[in-house]
TrEMBL record:
<keyword id="KW-0067">ATP-binding</keyword>
<keyword id="KW-0902">Two-component regulatory system</keyword>
<feature type="transmembrane region" description="Helical">
    <location>
        <begin position="40"/>
        <end position="58"/>
    </location>
</feature>
<keyword id="KW-0418">Kinase</keyword>
<dbReference type="GO" id="GO:0046983">
    <property type="term" value="F:protein dimerization activity"/>
</dbReference>
<keyword id="KW-1133">Transmembrane helix</keyword>
<dbReference type="InterPro" id="IPR036890">
    <property type="entry name" value="HATPase_C_sf"/>
</dbReference>
<dbReference type="GO" id="GO:0005524">
    <property type="term" value="F:ATP binding"/>
</dbReference>
<keyword id="KW-0812">Transmembrane</keyword>
<keyword id="KW-0547">Nucleotide-binding</keyword>
<feature type="domain" description="Signal transduction histidine kinase subgroup 3 dimerisation and phosphoacceptor">
    <location>
        <begin position="81"/>
        <end position="145"/>
    </location>
</feature>
<keyword id="KW-0472">Membrane</keyword>
<feature type="transmembrane region" description="Helical">
    <location>
        <begin position="9"/>
        <end position="28"/>
    </location>
</feature>
<dbReference type="GO" id="GO:0000155">
    <property type="term" value="F:phosphorelay sensor kinase activity"/>
</dbReference>
<keyword id="KW-0597">Phosphoprotein</keyword>
<protein>
    <recommendedName>
        <fullName>histidine kinase</fullName>
        <ecNumber>2.7.13.3</ecNumber>
    </recommendedName>
</protein>
<dbReference type="InterPro" id="IPR011712">
    <property type="entry name" value="Sig_transdc_His_kin_sub3_dim/P"/>
</dbReference>
């Protein structure tokens, strides 16, 4: 339903409601309902319809306007990124190219036997090449646009993974593909708390050399998030171990949100997984 149609419905529904009430009252209820009582009931009927139908339309209109606002913000951010990429390309990238050309010219004009000069220009040329490659990669990333892993609420989670990997001297991998708009504010808070607790559990007990955080969609509005490691794993049921409350807290949070909590060994991997069912994509 378009925003224009929603606005017209918001305007017309109260008017149509009072008109329909007056018709029913005069056509069918007049022998049973006094004029004073009918006039008294009219505003309550309009209020009831407004609270049921019109309020829902207002909610849909607000959601549509919020989506439009986010789209405009994203469009503005993409324009800024494109402008920055253009400035980097037209400015620094061109300057590096000219510097490389001058280094080549210096190398050709260096006197015979000046190996130190040639060695220095070779080192400088290598440095310029590395900087140029890094710059072009940065330009490509800017033009590619933001990814779900760049969302502000996801960044602390990625930093926590890197911190955990640093403390345990493990390799870290962060794979996140859940669009920010797919999660409500409450879901973000609860999901972050669950994954944070799972990472702390890895830090304390796993003795892993590799740890991963995965976030992916599994249907319309659904997702699968997991912390996986190749550590020592679970000895028995991890939810029954005395004085170990972390995973039980994750399970309880997940259950309150209506999510499925899984903690198990899959081959040589320990997996703590949270799943929100989604509608089928087929």
């Amino acid at each position: 339903m378009t925003d224009q149609r929603i606005k017209w419905l918001i305007l017309l529904i109260p008017t149509m409601t009072i008109g329909l009430w007056e018709y029913i009252r005069h056509a069918f209820l007049l022998p049973y309902l006094s004029m004073e009582l009918g006039n008294l009931l009219a505003p309550f009927i309009v209020l009831t319809v407004t609270l049921t139908l019109v309020r829902g339309l207002f909610s849909r209109l607000e959601a549509s306007l919020e989506a439009l606002r986010r789209e405009r913000e994203l469009s503005a951010a993409l324009e800024q990124r494109e402008q920055l990429a253009k400035e980097l390309h037209d400015g620094i990238a061109q300057s590096l190219f000219l510097l490389a050309v001058k280094l080549d010219r210096l190398d050709r004009t260096a006197p015979e036997g000046e190996e130190k000069v040639r060695s220095l220009t070779a080192e400088l040329r290598s440095t310029v090449k590395v900087i140029d490659e890094d710059l072009r990669q940065a330009i490509a990333n800017l033009r590619k646009g933001p990814t779900p892993a760049d969302a502000a609420w996801v960044i602390p989670l990625r930093e926590l993974l890197e911190e955990t990997a640093g403390i345990t001297e493990a390799q870290a991998e962060f794979r996140w593909a859940i669009p920010e708009d797919d999660l409500s504010p409450k879901e973000k808070v609860e999901l972050y708390a669950c994954l944070r607790e799972a990472l702390i559990n890895v830090r304390k007990h796993a003795k892993a050399t590799r740890v991963e955080v995965v976030g992916e969609t599994n249907g319309e509005g659904g997702f699968r998030c997991a912390v996986e490691d190749n550590g020592v794993g679970f000895l028995g049921d991890p939810l029954t171990v005395k004085e170990r409350f972390g995973l039980r807290m994750v399970r309880d949070r997940s259950n309150r949100m209506g999510w499925t909590f899984i903690a198990e060994m899959r081959g040589d991997r320990t997996v703590v997984e949270i799943v929100k069912p989604g509608e089928s994509l087929e």
